[in-house]
Design goal:
The structure is a single chain. With about 280 residues, the protein is of the alpha+beta class. The chain folds into 3 domains: about 110 residues, no CATH class; about 60 residues; about 90 residues, no CATH class. The chain has 12 helices and 8 strands. The strands form 2 sheets. It has a 4-stranded antiparallel beta sheet. A 4-stranded mixed beta sheet has the order 5-7-8-6, covered by helices on one side. Helix 3 runs antiparallel to helix 4 and helix 4 packs antiparallel against helix 8. It is elongated. The two termini are about 45 Å apart.
Length: about 280
């Protein structure tokens, strides 16, 4: 909300020695990003979460980039520091587990309650940052090159960038569509990374939903994500479709499933409130 006032002067100073066309296009892109985040924040949905996170992360990157040029000398070191801190806080808020659950649950129906799952670290190591960088570059590269009168390269990147941005957003949005959801009939795990289809674990079959005990063996859907893993223990085996590889799908009988939500305590509390055994 306050970034135009805290980061705006620094970004404007960084663009001040550019051509009027580049300055105008960059300003349009910056204001467009701010409006997109503001609009998405007012309508919390899973799609909105992707918009907020993809765009909000660009704020500290852009502000830090502006702070590395001569802009701090024009706006003052203190103002530049405020800009960096405010942009970083905005990005941190966008990636907060509380924010994730609020937006994910915004797409729920009726008495459902959704909780986001943690992103596997193997994806955070390279694929996610690369997808994000390609998405942002796909959006801004073409317009800025056209503003710089690089007509051929700018036109090519405008088209190619749009395709890359669409692919990148779809890939990143897939990470926001991973959750555990409580429904009147039981518990559903919706995790396209490990399950080809959402799986309902009927209430009558749930023996316990709580922190995984040491040495717990079961079907592992944690994807080695850090944090407290929860175990969903069943009274009898249930056939479940699982992904063996990206394209290979199989079926296994499971009597226990492990998963890692971003807020395990909130998940256990919700289970208890719905009178599911947690001890």
């Amino acid at each position: 909300m306050i970034l135009p006032f805290t980061a705006g002067p620094l970004l404007a100073a960084a663009l001040s020695d550019r051509s009027r066309a580049i300055e105008a296009v960059a300003s349009i892109l910056l204001w467009g990003g701010w409006v997109a985040v503001l609009t998405a924040s007012l309508v919390p949905r899973t799609v909105s979460l992707t918009v907020v996170r993809v765009t909000a992360l660009a704020a500290p990157v852009g502000v830090v980039g502006a702070a590395t040029v001569e802009a701090p000398e024009q706006v003052g070191t203190a103002s530049a520091a405020v800009a960096v801190v405010s942009a970083s806080l905005a990005a941190a808020a966008a990636f907060s587990p509380l924010t994730g659950d609020e937006f994910v649950n915004g797409s729920s129906y009726g008495s459902e309650r959704r909780f986001a799952l943690r992103v596997p670290p193997v994806l955070l190591a390279a694929p996610v940052p690369l997808a994000w960088a390609a998405t942002i570059a796909g959006v801004v590269a073409g317009p800025l090159l056209l503003a710089a009168r690089q007509w051929v390269l700018g036109g090519v990147l405008l088209v190619v960038g749009a395709v890359v941005a669409v692919i990148g957003v779809r890939a990143l949005h897939g990470l926001a569509r991973r959750w555990v959801v409580f429904v009147p009939a039981g518990v559903v795990l919706h995790d396209p990374l490990g399950l080809p289809e959402p799986v309902l674990f009927p209430r009558r079959m749930v023996r316990r939903l709580g922190p995984a005990r040491a040495g717990t063996e079961g079907h592992d859907l944690t994807q080695r994500a850090p944090g407290l893993a929860l175990a969903l223990e069943l009274t009898e085996p249930l056939p479940v479709g699982v992904r063996r590889t990206r394209r290979e799908v199989g079926t296994v009988d499971v009597d226990q499933v492990l998963f890692t939500p971003t807020r395990p305590g909130a998940v256990v509390t919700e289970a208890a409130q719905r009178r599911l055994p947690t001890a």
